[in-house]
Design goal:
The protein is an alpha+beta fold. It has 13 helices and 18 strands. The chain has two domains: about 5-95, Beta Barrel (OB fold (Dihydrolipoamide Acetyltransferase, E2P)), CATH 2.40.50; about 120-420, Bira Bifunctional Protein, Domain 2 (BirA Bifunctional Protein, domain 2). The structure holds 4-amino-1,4-dioxobutan-2-aminium adenosine-5'-monophosphate (4AD) and magnesium ion.
Amino acid sequence: MKQTFITDAAAHVDQVVTMKGWVANIRSSGSIAFIQLRDGSGFMQAVIVKSDVDEASWELVNKVTQESSVALMGTISAHPKKEGVFELQVTSIELIHIAEEYPIGNKEHGPDFLMEHRHLWLRSKKQWAILRIRDVVETAINEYLHQEHFIRTDSPIFTPNACEGTTDLFPVPYFDLGEAFLSQSGQLYIEAAIGSVGRCYDFGPVFRAEKSVTKRHLTEFWMMDAEAAFVEHDENVGLQEGLVKHIVASCLKNCTKEFEILERDVTPLQAVVDKPFTRYTYTEAIEKLHELGSDIKFGEDLGNDDEGLLTKDSDVPVFIEKWPKNIKPFYMKIDPEDSAHVLNDDLIGIEGAGEIIGGSQREDNFDLLLERIREDGLDEKEYSWYTDLRKYGSVPHSGFGIGLERMVRWMSGVAHIRECIPFPRTVNRLKP
Ligand code: 4AD
Ligand code: MG
């Protein structure tokens, strides 16, 4: 019989169905047993009454272990008291595979143990919920961008040069061509693609070799870079705000049960959807931080503590725009009103989310771009294809990159980014 999914239970009340999945938990007492079945789409209780099943099925009740895979035949019933809760009244059980003693029990495990068993840990309810939130965030990003006339073009992962900074690259031997580097961001490539399609984005893994051991850094993470022709700084910031609002609204709409599992209080998220985000210039942000007691110096990058301080009394995310040009990459356009600063922005989330987005208007003038490349000590020949874009119908354009796992971490409310990607890669972990 065709598999019926737990998530579709409401449409199959009083029908005879087959459900397939894993035994998350089983308990029995004399003549009745309860299996907590999970099938990937959800969790559901299956009730097995000794007198209602054949002998072979009842024998299995005493045999199946946690994580064994089974097919359960029976009738779906609506819970008499709890709305939206369904049960399977089992008539027969088929054992697909009996699981060995499962290493992850109900007792507390340390993070190292769980990370070493990541391939199995993914099955636990909280990890399941985070994976689903990740999917909702990804889907929301795709939706919003298409709505705004962006199409997905994607960028290469092997690259000949740096996008964000030369010190944070992973080199890879590349046949007779010497060394390639794993991409830090596909931005430069989608800047080329907008010449064809106007507005586009890539969405895939990027790599950072900086040795940051924090709750917010991965060495491999997923980034969505968006780029748009004829968009200047203010409109760029508006697109970012629209995107984040759309993601948050989509999570609020689609992740109710996931938030419940994670015990995530979603009240703070409603303001993010309803209210305009705050905008500070870098200079204003530094002044504000000084008022709040930070000893950050003008010209320094904001640390985790500064980001926290700046957003702690805010119920909406905060943009910090127009940073000093000398701490930002060569491609950012200089502010025509203040040549020491660039037309860029970082978006800092609330609830300790930290930096979620980095974006900027790009330098579209050939000579100025070349000057910035030289100033930064980069090899202009390596970037000739990129500067070429400023020779043939150059247009003002802007873009931004959002870190998927940073967004998932914020939405799910978990402390550590390593739980926001199925198989995290960090300075200290490459397995499993
Ligand atoms: O601010 P970043 O470095 O910006 C860029 O790479 C631009 N080229 C993007 C663009 O304009 N198209 O990175 C963008 C975002 C950050 O705001 C953060 O959310 C995330 O990527 N990010 C990381 N996430 C996890 N681990 C890391 N090590 C990250 N580094 C950046
Ligand atoms: Mg950044």
